[in-house]
Amino acid sequence: MKLKMMTMVGAVLSSMFILAGSAAAEERFSDLQHVKWAEDSITYMADRGTVAGVGNGKFAPEKPVTRAQAVTFLVRELYPEQLQSGAVSPSYTDVQSTHPFYHEIGIAKHYGLARGFPDGSFHPDAAMSRAETAAFLTRAYALSTGGMSVSLTDVQHHWAAEPIQLMSSNGLIGGYADGTYRPDRSVTRAEFSVFLARVIRFERQAAIALQDWDKLISYMTLSEQVGQMLMPDIRQWNGQATTTVNEGLKRTVQDLDLGGMILFDKNIVNARQVVQLTHDLQKVAGELPLYLGVDQEGGVIKRIPGGTNLPGQMALGASGDPILAKAAGTLTGEELRALGLQVNFAPVLDVNSNPDNPIIGMRSFSADADLVSRLGLDTIQGLRQAGVIAAVKHFPGHGDTTVDSHLGLPVLTHNRERLDAVELKPFRTAIEGGVEMIMTAHIAFPAIENEHVTSLKDGSQVPIPATLSKKVLTGLLREELGYQGIIISDAFTMNGIAEHFGENQAVERAVNAGVDIILMPQHPEAAHKTLVQAVENGRIPVETIHKSVKRILELKAKYGLFDQEESLPQKFSALKTIGSEEHRAIEREIAERAVTVLASRHGENPDSIQPSDRVVIAATDKEQAEQLQRQLTQTASNRSLKTEIAVMGQGKTLGVLQKMEQADYVILASYQFRNVASEFGWSEIQTVVDTLNKLNKRYVLLSLGNPYETMYVQNVRSALAVYGKQEPNTQAAIQVLLGQLKAEGVLPVATQSIQK
Predict the structure, then answer these.
(1) CA distance 607 to 701
(2) What is the C-alpha separation between 257 and 730, in angstroms, rounded?
(3) Is 368 a catalytic residue?
(4) With CB atoms counted within 10 Å of each terminal CB, which end of the chain scores lower, N or C?
(5) Rounded alpha-carbon distances, angstroms, from residue 54 to 62, 105, 129
(6) Residue of 321, 378, 490, 516 marked active site
(7) pTM
(8) DSSP-assigned letters across all residues of 528-573
(9) For 52-77, how does the pLDDT look when each residue is reduced to its tens digit (9 = 90+)?
(10) Is residue 406 annotated as a catalytic residue, yes or no?
């Protein structure tokens, strides 16, 4: 019976998958200098917790491996869970209960892994031969005959001819220069480690080739499996931004067996550097590739260096065009793919129904759940078409909150009927459309989860957020909504989690709730250790880990992460897609289609800029004012415009108003984002608007952020919204003001004037 195949069925599935090598020795031996050819294999097997030294940091690589040691190594690899149970008597005449490997020999006999001799003995301390090594390994692993033809002159009539030929046909053992195998020669501890490592690596590669993820998981250590469930950020090392694979980053990836990483601005210099970084990261990761992801929502949240940023999701919402939404997803995916990135934490499926939301705002498509659903699905399909995984966010919905979960723990008190009608609708649509990754929200939803725990921050009773709630993630998302894909948490560095729950407790709770991947643990090493210990101690069921890892591996395979064969020069050549003219044209079209009239003297168009006008451009940010000035000058090159900038801010209002008195036209730029709209400093803008009205000046209040100006500023006679301060957005506004473009966008959020 092929024993490895036996471990794939029955009750062993529930423990073998997880516990193989779970107590990885991590030994580093000082006596390997004369066996450099075997050092990698010895280290690999020691890290798996399979082989061990002889004490004092020694491995004794050139000593013969005994039969008892050999079966012990195999039992540690194949049946570690049995080592925790009671002893199984081997019933050999020469293996007494006092033998140091009595238990292991008993397990090996029980599973038919090792056989004794006709006289009832086992010869535990006898040296293993090359023939016995082949026999032991082919009993343990279900190998098929390979395609390599090897002729060994001294094995044809040997009792171990069949296992030797089987091993050699797969390139797992070899002969000597004279064509012999020398089957009866003893095997050293180094040689046995090499043979065993070859078989395990061969079987892993075979499992990957066949996409047999259950089999692959059976060869993965607990460290490797838990590592697949971690996706940290590595922004700095030794006080410097991480833009290359330095030793710190390399150790983190390899020591924690990481399954992925998220990149931020600190990791990004330019497109060529990102390609080099992602290429090198995958080389460090080895046979289990990394998910490499970024937040590329477009608009205010962007990562692609020199790429097509796009005007943002609310600009798409103002256009209302599903074709443009899909095109935006496709071009974003193409540029991310060219950079070596496979996961985009977008689109945002939050319905921004609350103007006081301090963190979502124009990152959302709309306050209309149906529009968010339609455009969200189109964007997902575009990313998928380009070969990039869309990780939609933030489930069950972050749109109607007044607390930023980066800073605190929001609570959404709506009843279930409202959640179904608004917050959950876009996620239902995405699930029906086959979305493959969903990010959780660090938000409490009492209508679904009403449990409270004691806060580590202040001892108060705080509700369980969605990220840590089994009722939300397993009960609602998986069971009720039928979602089968990967659940990834929002960042564990955010205060909504970090302050109240403590990272170790939160990591364990999140996985038990249903999270497959922990994003951005504050302390990756501690998170890794916590999960390993939780599995070993039974606080996290082994089946939970297995299911998560299988989902992760399946999706990596679906998106070709195991097939990364492109050379670095080929990857560099693909960078021509970054910011291509074709992509820029789509960017311009979205921006132009998005421009929305918020207020007009005549109900249709804002005040226009006339030839020879003296134009004052006022903004709180000097660079923003200069950007608008530059674009206006270039676009109106055939007009004799005179332009001047005015920087607004505390104590500067009088000077700004004096400049405006001499102007024919005023562009008053407003930018409200990442704060509560009702608490924003609208008074200065109101003062300027009142003055312009009194002077009967032509002007435009240009909304560059969340388009809620007319809720808080009264008597605005001319206003445009462009949903972003990026150049494509502002350029489209300039074209409208010059009469070169008609503003056709439809406001995607509700605004109701606040009476003062």
Answers:
(1) 10
(2) 45
(3) no
(4) C
(5) 12, 18, 20
(6) 490
(7) 0.92
(8) HHHHHHHHHTTSS-HHHHHHHHHHHHHHHHHTTGGG----HHHHHH
(9) 999 999 999 999 999 999 999 999 99
(10) yes
